[in-house]
């Protein structure tokens, strides 16, 4: 397959004679409905044919200037930045193809991609276009977001690909540093792309791997990945310099996640992840049955997953678990019971969850079991019933981020091709008289709300390290506007710096409020909800006998916590707690 070339950048100057009048007319037009916008763009077609896209019109506005502020202009275009309604822009970057220590039989082996990803997945295509270079991926994604009118001040970096912990440390440090440098440069209006990047290996030229062959992904890749390229190295000091610059950069990292396997989560690895700047870990748990893990050659048992989650929790990380249905040896009934265990067992209870029903692809060794008749995909009705039960069983403190992998239909040999399974399952939950209580189903998103009617609620539950308090501001109809995750450990953490401190693992505020009689909704971030949540966490920690509160802050939120009275430690920020004077807490508990 020919590698695709990134599209050339749009140059508004070359279109000035036609584009400038269109921009001027739009700026003066007042509110437009989609038809009005359509009519206007048709009156100013591109000289070579076709119409200007919204991103091209925005580029024109930015190049030629306008009478009105950019935000107002974007409103005219009726851009609804769904991905960034929380004010945080997610930027997904993929590591390069590299051998993975896992031997999981369900895992795709596309040698052009990091293990478990297929070249047709949307994020994977972007990574390939950018030669898996962290700087290019980050910078170009921010550029694309900005072109579409999304904010790029607060960025959540999501690093995907194979098993992060199996990549050489030098590569990890380099990868993280280059992501931070791209954020710093982009925010400062600098473009380091021409000089970016390691010389790419020619992954596209590798012969594809077929799941029926003995020759596997790792063998195919080893010759091109055996040694890191000279540029794929960095020192910790260089990374820390890039992180420090990011603290005050115009595009700040407010969250950073990596994905790895449970058997790689040693105490040392947890500390390394933290030093890289991580705040969240995506962990492939996949099943809570040792027999299923063994049948699928997962290479670790359930006890290992428990241990990994406990270590990550002790270090304050946000836990994003991956769980799979329809693995070899599972049935819809065992899967439903397995899913319930995720929330009944205090060792699991994830903050976020991806549910991946197994989809068979050519390059997965599961092909052999399929051809022997030992594995069958659930039919769509059985899968829909299972996912409906999963949605019903997900508690309010967990965010169910996905319920199916984003594979192209033509890649799927067996398994569902229904793209809107979540929507169908949500509808089915309603039909059965239930409600999706998970965070994603209750997020306020961009809807307006009455700030005076907000309630502060607490859900308290046990975990493997102690007690967890999930604090949330909710509207009268139970939409969540902001939340905080507080861990009150029973014993000292293996992370020396934390000792026996209470730990804030996450603070998230989204949405816009509408004051009674006000014309313009106000961003919830400006209402001080984050501060109020942190104050409530302090009160609760103090009342529980803690004399210190730590926060696993992202590099770009350090300044925010300093302003709230936290002091910098080596890997966390800390606030001393004075003995309790208050009679109690402000929130209602569930
Ligand atoms: S550990 Fe993850 S990436 Fe590696 S083979 Fe298993 S599922 Fe695939």
Description:
The chain has 590 residues and is α/β, with parallel strands linked by helices. The chain contains 19 helices and 19 strands. The chain has helices at residues 16-27, 34-43, 54-64, 70-76, 122-129, 134-147, 169-187, 217-225, 236-246, 267-276, 290-295, 302-314, 332-344, 366-371, 380-393, 421-431, 439-442, 529-543, 558-563; strands at residues 89-94, 154-160, 252-260, 280-286, 318-325, 352-357, 360-361, 399-402, 412-414, 455-462, 466-474, 480-489, 502-509, 512-513, 522-523, 548-551, 567-568, 573-576, 588-589. The strands form 4 sheets. It has an 8-stranded mixed beta sheet. A 7-stranded parallel beta sheet has the order 1-2-3-4-5-6-8. Strands 7-9 form a two-stranded antiparallel ribbon. Strand 5, helix 13 and strand 6 (352-357) form a beta-alpha-beta unit. The relative contact order is 0.09. Iron/sulfur cluster binds next to loops. Residues 100, 102, 104, 107, 115-116, 162-163, 261, 284 line the site of iron/sulfur cluster (SF4).
Structural key phrases:
19 helices, 590 residues, globular, seven-stranded parallel beta sheet, 17% strand, binds iron/sulfur cluster, alpha/beta, single chain, disordered N terminus
Q: Biggest sheet, strands in spatial order?
A: 17-18-16-13-12-11-10-19
Mean pLDDT: 89
Which secondary-structure class do the elements indicate?
A: alpha/beta
What is the alpha-carbon Rg in Å? 25 Å
- State the distance separating the first and last CA atoms: 55 Å
Low-pLDDT runs of 5+ residues are: 1-6
Largest sheet: 8 strands, mixed
Q: Please, what is the oligomeric state?
A: single chain
Strand content of the residues, in percent?
15-25%
Bulk shape = globular
